[in-house]
Amino acid sequence: MVEPFIGIYLTQARGMSLAAAGLVMTTFGAGSLLSQPVAGWLTDRFGRRVTLTGGMTATAVTFVALGYTTSLAGIVVAMLVLGVVVDAYRPASQALVADLVSPDDRPRAYGLLFWAINLGFAVAMVSGGWLVRSGFTVLFWVDAITSLVFGVLVWRAIPERRPAREERQEGGFAAVFRDRPMAVFVLISFGYALVYLQAYTTLPLAMTGGGLTPGAYGVAMAVNGVLIVLVQPLTNSWVSRRDPFRTLAGGFVLVAVGLGLTALVSTTAGYALTVGVWTVGEIFTAGIPGAIVASLAPAHLRGRYSGAYGLAWSAGGLLAPLLGTRLLAVSPSVVWPVTCGLGLLAAAGLLVLGPAVRRRAAAAEQAAHSES
Hints:
By secondary structure, the chain is an all-alpha fold. Helix content is 84%, strand content 0%. The chain has two domains: 1-160, Growth Hormone, Chain: A (Up-down Bundle); 171-363, MFS general substrate transporter like domains (Growth Hormone, Chain: A), CATH 1.20.1250.20.
């Protein structure tokens, strides 16, 4: 609820310049980059439930501290800490699904998690915009309270799952990146993140630079939220029965083509149509990456594997604005074809990687049958 309004809060409530606000928000990105490996280690070392509840409790405290801090140094520290703790739930929740759900049902389970997060974000955008009229302090407190409620629910309702003590001493992030298929999948995911995140960084700049209002961007992006909330639950079971790498590659292609078509439109309706195209691709990708990571990860390293995957997105979040704005400065007709090409390259990488992962899964299944 707070994150989308951070820039407005820093410039309006704290009187920062755009340059200063951008620097402060960069510290949030740096914290997010640290968050994924740290949370992955905590998930494997201390448990999924501890990490989820601890991360949400720390988030609540940091929200309140940020809302009352007035000094620049204090705000910078609070934003750095917030970047670390607010996304700590990701590796823990991904590992928890892998613990509790059978391999065949994981794509559907991760898809439902994707849908719930998007539904929550849609509600947060609307309610946050309404609450901010009463002052930013109210917004920070409400978000802190909801974070605490989530943490309490997890602590009371979710069973703890963590590796045995001897397993917790085995491996580490070095083992994750020595796993060649996983390392390649992280690299591909990073490339896709650079593509997908242009919709949230470069697209609004391109639309307003072309003479449209910020409201036009909001209208076009509303298509994304509506389609995900209404369509994704209907396709979840169908997608989960398909080959994950081919389906994910198909989703990447649709996202790449949808963003590439942006170069050809100039009206709000045209942009909304392109958003619809790449949103269908996003729906196809829902839940599949989590299932792939879970299939690659040993049980005692699920947190670290999920953290490595999350690291690809955090790094993409830091670099996507830099890449997109530089290309946009060259020409609006350049940024979208390059974005499309990068997305198609990521899709091709998935198709190459898929057979190797399938062979490994078949060997693991055969070994399990031999032991039984």
